[in-house]
Amino acid sequence: MPTPINNRALHRDIGYFYVGLIISFAFSGILQNHRDTWKPEKYTAKIKQISAQLLQNEEEITEEYARSLGEKLGIKDKFRRSMVKKGELRISYEMNDVDIDIKSGKGEIITYQDTPLVSQMHKLHKSTSVWWIYYSDFFGISMIALAVTGTLMIAKGKLSFKSRGWKLALAGLVFPLIFLFLLS
Questions:
Q1: CB atoms within 10 A of CB 103
Q2: What was the pLDDT predicted at 5?
């Protein structure tokens, strides 16, 4: 078993290496928690009022119809989805949203821009790049090493893991489990 000095050095060096990623993940994680309230990775850059002649029968407004309408409106963006709800057509794109009242044909195109720095950090949580997945896995293993070395740094006395640290660790484990069961 490594001595407490080696645990301390390993803990310190892993912490130094990952301090930027820890802060970035923590910050973007907070933003992820509130993504339904506001879109932290994007901000509204422009709102353009529009008028369009739409089909009046909501069943005829298909995804293909919505795509072609977006093209007619001059949107050159990656199509995501469309839906009709409460008499309104909503077409979502990567960087645009289109909302049009079906009866009146009046609506708006909302154009978004990436929020500098926040958008890039936010993408870390969504990345499916193979190299990033491996790096994130190694980061996860390193976080486990940080946790273990942190528990071993104080080997004796009333502040050690054996005396009191295990109680705090258990409380730290129980707390998310309670939320997990409450949310499911």
A1: 10
A2: 58
Please give the pLDDT value at position 119. 81
| Residue from 118, 120, 119, 110 nearest 44 by CA | 110
Which residues have a Cβ under 8 Å from the Cβ of 149 and sit 6 or more positions away?
7, 8, 10, 11, 14
Residue 136, CA distances (Å) to 32, 78, 123 in order? 17, 28, 13
Mean pLDDT of the chain: 85
**Dihedral pair phi/psi, residue 94, rounded to 5°:** -55, -50
78: tokens are: 């990656």
Task: Write the CB contacts of 80 (distance below 8 Å, at least 6 apart in sequence).
Answer: 92, 93, 94
Q: How confident is the model at residue 29 (pLDDT cuts 50, 70, 90)?
A: confident
Task: Tell me the H-state helices in 105-163.
Answer: 118-126, 130-152
E-assigned strands of the chain? 42-51, 79-85, 88-93, 96-101, 106-114
Q: From CA 50, how far away is CA 44, in angstroms rounded?
A: 17
- Residue 1 pLDDT grade (very low, low, confident, very high; cuts 50, 70, 90): low
How many CA atoms within 13 Å lie on the side-chain side of 96?
A: 18
pTM over 0.90: no
